[in-house]
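Record type: ASSEMBLY
Status: queued
Input:
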Amino acid sequence: MSDGVLFTDPPQEESEDWDGIAAEATVDTDALYLELDGWEGPLDLLLDLARRQKVDLREISILALVEQYLDYIEQAEALKLELAADYLVMAAWLAYLKSAMLLPKEEQEDPSPEELALKLQLRLQRLGAMREAAGRLMGGDRIGRDVFLRGSPEGLDIVRKTNWQCDQFALIEAYGRVKARTAPAVHMVRERPVMTLESALDRVSNMLGVTLEWMELRDFLPPHAEPRLRKSALASSFVAALELARLGKAEIAQDEVFGPMKLRRVA
Amino acid sequence: MNQLERAIEAALFAAEEPMSVDALASFLGDAEKPDVRNALKALAETYEKRGIHLVERGKRWHFETAPDLAHLLRKEREQVRRLSRAATEVLAIIAYHEPVSRAEIESIRGVQTSGGTLDVLMEAGWVKIAGRREVPGRPTIYATTPEFLDHFGLTSRRDLPGIAELKATGLLDPVDDAYDDLMGEGEEEEPHEAPEVEEDSTDAA
Amino acid sequence: MNQLERAIEAALFAAEEPMSVDALASFLGDAEKPDVRNALKALAETYEKRGIHLVERGKRWHFETAPDLAHLLRKEREQVRRLSRAATEVLAIIAYHEPVSRAEIESIRGVQTSGGTLDVLMEAGWVKIAGRREVPGRPTIYATTPEFLDHFGLTSRRDLPGIAELKATGLLDPVDDAYDDLMGEGEEEEPHEAPEVEEDSTDAA
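Status: finished
Output:
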């Protein structure tokens, strides 16, 4: 690093990107200026004061810097400006540093004032370097300001193409499926040996009319019927018996659970 | 290459719309129109053999990519997908009955067929529009393509098994009969309560 | 001019985003990456003196207008959004120190950084969260993006103005390290509040 390289005044055109703070541009060194709102913290102010000494930061007199800062804060207070707390904290710390630097060395405690001063100097150097770098970065060829991209790019077409897969078997099977599904459906209703409730009702009430004696439900079933018809007849006759009982045309009796159900006409 | 050419090149590149000679001349401040015209011609010549061309369209100039590179600038991304069950059925019906209208397809399938299904088959290159049927409404009719035969390994449509063969292989048996056959004798005749569902499982392996 | 150069020229011209060598090679189908790289270099050279330049920014290539024509093209164009001084500084610190935590940024600036500043930079697409530092508290660390290089016209982070000198003079090192260096050997073992920053190796070509 050559002397002064880091802290040459940034090129003027950069200031257009700096948001209204522009300490270098607006400040007249001789005039009283207070821009505490503009400085982002005490370090910022210190850096600005340091740059006013117009020497390389490595050779800056920390003592002089401290005095300027304290003067500055004093002026601000005289003007009854509200000072952010961190400016005052820094002022206190710098006042301590100043007194320590003025005292004979032997009485110093660790860390030494030289160390503190050096570290402050190092910090200012780093901040200054970054500020300089930011200026140069902003001064580069920026898209939309210095260089321009294609106004209306066509864009690259990405065409999605589907490669459909199917095979002969699937095709034939599908046709079979359609054919099978839509073949005219002929429903053959098988004849079943059943006794309907109506016929059971007729049959039971007719048979009841013959006698006044108790008859077992079984006796109402058609004799010699095949087993499936017999089952159906039993179910229908049972319901018919219940229906006749409900209508008051018949009485039902059963002596024991699961015993034979008996039926007779109501006289 | 002179400064005017450079400026025109940059201006046309960055412009959002094609620019006329007038627009260019006024944009570039003090440029004379004949100079602009000459510069445009020189630029167009320079670009003639490149990947970008400078062209005049309706008196306005702009850059565009060379027409012969169009195929390169369109990237096709292929994606393998299995034909859905519904599409397979429609394809089969077209293959067996072609040429066939959509209404006929629907009547054979017994379910409505979405237009998307036919689009898929046409996109796949297996089905094409084969004209219109000369009946009221002049419906579009569909047929299979040579690519269809190709893809399915058929020499001609006659290679498709006939109804008799389908029957022999059991492919025409209603599902319940086939079930009964498998189960011995069918004691219970079950009602077919579930209506045919239009399936659209694209990835049914 | 060969076909590959023409194709690359056309593709980059038509593309809406900068393209990497990889993207170009895969887009152009069967192009070999070394060939693409050579073609890009040849093209960049061809355009060097023209009104349009072909440039590499963070490993991605795009066309842009020549910087010296800025004065012609700038008019009527919307100005680039202005960054506040705070945002500018934070961006520079991130770019020169990346990846870097907010505490480290603040220690360099000597002032608290509002979250809004980082948000602005992230919204602009120039800064991204680059993970967390594996130290107590696991602070979030930030780094710049390819769009940052793009926007500021940098080929890679090594192109950052003055970064080599800053590195050589130790101005990118934490204050305590620099102090120890100055003192010869560090007599007092001081805690490094800002741990050594790992150099981002992604753009070290």
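Annotation: Chain A has eight helices and four strands.
Annotation: Chain A touches chain C through 48 residues (CB under 8 Å).
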